[in-house]
Amino acid sequence: MARAMWFYAVQAGDGAVKFGRTVDVTARVAQLAIASPAELRLVAAVPETVIRETDAKRQWADLRVRGEWYKPDPGLIAWLARLPALWKGRTEVIVRRPRKLAPHSRFRPRRCERIDCHKWYIPARRKQRFCSARCRHREWIRSRESLAPAAP
């Protein structure tokens, strides 16, 4: 059975904040503490149904210091303090988000039929066999070359 993902925020001794997502928050904080010279403190941990890591990183991108570490802005710290309040009363935890499908997604995902491609794609029409027009064209050229008479 798949386990729920958690969004967490850790603050280092110098004030820098790191966002992340994990299945086991305590184990992840322990891993980070081993690698960090500064003392780390868990600031927030909520299920990913409340906030996704990518959304948080996009929202606070202007505060990025290096890698996944962010400046300790008062607005960021206040936002992290409010996260557990958003979670109160929620009992459902989504284990895995379904990926967004295109508007024409009434067909199941298929693999491209080109010999050297085999990418997964969602067909736009019933008899679509290739992931793109480029793959269709390359397969057509390959089939023409195989049917061409041999030169004497």
Helix content: 25-40%
Tell me, rounded to a whole number, the average pLDDT: 76
Order of helices and strands: EEHEHEEHEEH
Q: DSSP helix count?
A: 4
Total count of strands: 7
Characterize the overall form.
elongated
Please state the structural category: alpha+beta
Kindly report the spatial arrangement of strands forming the biggest sheet.
3-1-2-5-4
Largest sheet: 5 strands, antiparallel
- Give the low-confidence spans: 89-98
Write a concise synopsis of the structure shown.
Helix content is 31%, strand content 20%. It contains four helices and seven strands; from the N terminus they run E-E-H-E-H-E-E-H-E-E-H.
Q: Your description of this structure?
A:
This protein is of the alpha+beta class. The protein has 2 domains: 6-87; 110-147, no CATH class. The protein has 4 helices and 7 strands. It has helices at 25-35, 53-59, 74-87, 133-147; strands at 6-12, 17-22, 40-47, 64-66, 69-70, 110-111, 120-121. A hairpin with an 8-residue loop joins strand 6 (110-111) and strand 7 (120-121). The radius of gyration is 24 Å and the shape is elongated. The termini are far apart.
Q: Which tags fit this structure?
A:
single chain, 152 residues, alpha+beta, 2 domains, 5-stranded antiparallel sheet, 4 helices
